[in-house]
Amino acid sequence: SSEEAPSTDLITLTRHVLSDQLRLGSAATGDLTLLLTAIQVTSKFIATNVRKARLINLVGLAGETNVQGEEQKKLDVLSNDIMVNALRASGKTAVLVSEELEDAIIIEEKQRGKYCVVFDPLDGSSNIDAGVNIGTIFGIYRVHCLTTCRTIQRPDSSGTVEDVLRPGSEMVAAGYTMYGSSANLVLSTGSGVNGYTLDASLGEFILTHPNITIPSRGKIYSFNEGNSMYFYPPVTAYLKAIKYPAPPKTPYSARYIGSMVADVHRTLLYGGIFGYPNDKKSKSGKLRLLYEAFPMAFLTEQAGGIATTGTKRILDIIPTSIHERCSVFLGSRDDVQDVMKFYKEVS
Ligand code: AHG
Ligand code: MN
Ligand code: MN
Ligand code: MN
Q1: Whose Cα sits closest to atom 18 in ligand 1?
Q2: What Enzyme Commission number(s) appear in the record (predicted)?
Q3: ipTM (interface pTM)
């Protein structure tokens, strides 16, 4: 019947990650689970602050500018501090990179662990004051060690910036939390993508979206078309093709929130394409490679989609600096392949 009793067997995020480790016999020790527990706590803490922001004078500017030249909002700074404190205290991290901090933090020996976390503490800053969805994005590397590094062999490391100047394909986990009508944490540890919803009364993230897979084609495109006059010809031609298709095809719907977390979340669930291309104004694109493009590309591929700069797989890029930017198209396989075709054919 439709009136089933509520479940008495809740699958929490921690339970799920632990059972995955057992089931997949992965080499992951409990350390990654403990690190993920610390990240969950930061998401809960940020979520409560987001909810109360208007009431406790947490909206508006903090008065400082970050290394990217953006004015920091109070919530950007608070979320950054929450994450740095919790990740350091977890004892599981060696290197931290945040959008809001110019330099990487190298964790002092006493508290050092094996993982590096790159993060965007608060994504979608421009949406905070309007109460529109915002989020946190994170990616996790293990410090270089001879036995596990796939692309570049380096000696064992105790944690330097080199440990995060690596292709996104070497991440061991990536995810985001979206602060919307509920707080949703979406995570991949390299074997598919799962979504969890915060049950605020329990204080636990509960598995609500097992095994997220992106439809192979969608009906939605998500670009800031206000940048149209700067777009390069392949992008202009692609957008024209999806807005003025040859019958019997019908045009796509436009959805653009302006918080990458929310736009990617919708793309994972509904399909379609999200794009923030490089253009004549933003020559390298706007989104940051380490803590925006890589984690979202990791999740997209794990969900069966594609993430590309237009000409190159995002996860293959080898970063040369921690705040570098890149062009991004991600989403449904067929839709992203369409845009890649325009990059091949239009110049
Ligand atoms: P952040 O708020 O962390 O600086 O990120 C903003 C990013 C991303 O969330 C979003 O996709 C994009 O910037 C929106 O940019 P526009 O306002 O140029 O559309
Ligand atoms: Mn910012
Ligand atoms: Mn961001
Ligand atoms: Mn941010």
Answers
A1: 224
A2: 3.1.3.11
A3: 0.98
